[in-house]
Design brief:
Layout: H1 5-13, E1 21-28, H2 30-33, E2 36-37, H3 51-57, E3 70-78, E4 81-88, E5 105-106, H4 109-119, E6 124-130, H5 152-157, H6 167-181, E7 196-204, H7 207-210, H8 224-241, E8 248-252, H9 263-273, E9 285-289, H10 296-316, H11 331-345, H12 348-357, H13 369-390
Helix pairs in contact: 4-13, 8-9, 10-11
């Protein structure tokens, strides 16, 4: 979302603060990008438990609020086409096809920033760097993790060249340092006399590592290396940014909620959370479980939608257990059968609820704004908790 320069600088002029700029860095893969369409925000108000959250997200006009004291710079892109979008924090800083344009989506950055604005510790700058489909073992590999150990399959298929290992860690770090060299470029509220404070780092990543059978072969401790790499990342970002005790929040992957139906999913969650238990990180690293923010009702309906998709596949491919096992059903008959199957499986009310609350697949937390909004607030709360303890 873009605003005229008069509005941009008017917002900055309206801020009277003698406090350092509070800088938070948000990094990860597709779920840090955020795939919740703005159209799903109203769904938050349908649950009495989260209706107050929706009120905190809305401005006086009843629309998603434009932050008055929070700015954001967002580095993202597809392939090598990276770019930056920046401005006052608003919706639209979720996943973007064009880094410079409003993507119509939110990630955790939106409610995180609004929560930090309410905390009132000074003007806020969010530095966000996120790309879909990236791993920690290779793409975000930090120096402390050591050289990437190419697997036999890597060598056979000529994948994961050592030169590209850690490429996205370096991109993220370079962007953060560039912004911090001149915060006023993206945050007109920045006062050089007051300076800035590196107030927190938020990490939300993991799906690609969880499903990487090449790098993490089956076994009871298959994801233990992830814990080591994440601990190395925490040390490295602090070292590279000169902030040895900067609060670090680990957003523990929680797709699937209470019942992810995968031992790998559960094991990976524990591997993600593990670094927070290390003695060296006591009081300055917190693991926030995101599984409780999964919308169980929407998830149950999505399971039914997945059954419909599976049935469509079976009919098209003459599955042995499908109604088209003999291959005699015409395309029109398949469509009619599928329509009837879906109507019996999913009620009209359920279909309407899914449309209101979900906008993407389960691996993206169903693209549910309610889930991403809860995550953002939880990350902010954890960060503020650490800062209070350090003070």
């Amino acid at each position: 979302m873009r605003y005229p320069l008069l509005v941009w600088f008017g917002l900055a002029a309206a801020i009277a603060s003698a406090k350092p700029l509070q800088v938070y860095i948000l990094v990860g893969q597709s779920n840090m990008e955020g795939h919740a369409k703005v159209e799903t925000i109203d769904y938050i108000g349908e649950d009495p438990a989260t209706a107050p959250l929706l009120k905190r997200m809305l401005g006086p006009d009843g629309k998603p609020a434009l932050a008055k004291n929070v700015w954001i710079t967002y580095l993202t892109g597809i392939g090598d086409k990276n770019g930056e979008g920046f401005g006052p924090l608003s919706t639209g800083y979720g996943s973007r096809q064009d880094p410079t344009k409003d993507g119509g989506k939110i990630g955790p950055e939106y409610t995180f920033g609004l929560a930090m604005e309410r905390a009132g510790k000074g003007p806020v700058l969010l530095i966000k760097a996120a790309w879909g489909g990236k791993s920690l073992n290779y793409d975000f590999r930090s120096p402390g993790a050591g050289p990437y150990p190419r697997t036999a399959r890597d060598l056979e298929t000529d994948k994961h060249p050592l030169a590209d290992s850690g490429h996205y860690y370096r991109l993220m770090m370079a962007h953060a340092k560039q912004v911090l060299a001149n915060p006023g470029r993206v945050c007109p509220a920045y006062d050089p006399k007051e300076g800035y404070e590196l107030a927190g780092f938020i990490w939300l990543q993991g799906f690609n590592d969880m499903v990487d059978g090449n790098f993490y072969p089956k076994g009871p401790t298959r994801f233990a290396p992830y814990s080591d790499y994440l601990a190395a990342l925490i040390r490295d970002v602090r070292k590279d940014l000169g902030a040895p005790k900067m609060p670090f929040v680990i957003g523990v992957m929680g797709v699937g909620g209470k019942d992810p139906r995968s031992d790998d999913n559960l094991a990976f969650r524990e591997a993600m959370a593990a670094p927070a238990s290390l003695a060296e990180f006591k009081g300055n690293v917190i693991a926030v479980r995101t599984a409780p923010f999964w919308d169980e009702k929407l998830g149950a309906i999505q399971d039914k939608k997945d059954k419909v998709r599976q049935m469509a596949f079976e009919l098209k491919n003459k599955g042995k257990r499908s109604a088209n096992a003999d291959g005699k059903m015409t395309e029109a008959q398949q469509k009619a059968y599928l329509k009837d199957y879906e109507a019996k499986l999913i009620s009209a009310d359920e279909a309407a609820m899914l449309k209101r609350g979900a906008s993407n697949g389960g691996y993206h937390y169903l693209g549910c704004a309610k889930t991403f909004a809860l995550m953002g607030e939880a990350f902010a709360e954890a960060n503020l908790q650490m800062r209070a303890g350090q003070k």
